[in-house]
Design brief:
mainly alpha; 1 helix
Length: 91
Amino acid sequence: FLGHFPYQAPIFHHFACFRKDTEIHSLTSRLEDEQSLVVKLQRQIKELLARIQELEEELEAERQARYKAEKTRSEMQNELEELGDRLDEAG
C-alpha cells in the first residue's frame, strides 16, 4: 500500500507523532490534576487531624472538669451527711 504512495509514509508518521504528543499532553494534564488533588487532600487531612487533636483536648478537659465536679459533689455530700449526723446527736 505505502509502496505505491511513498509520500504518505511521512504523513502517517506525522499523524502518529501528533497522536502521541496529544496523548502525552493529556496524560500530563491528568497527572497534574491528580497531583493537585493529592495536595488538596493532604491539606484536608492535616486540617482534620488538627481538629481531631483539638477535640481530643476539649474532651480531656471536659473529663477532668466532670471528675473535679463529681469529687466536689462527693465531698459536699459527705460533709452534709456528717452535719446531719452531728445535728442528730445534738438534737
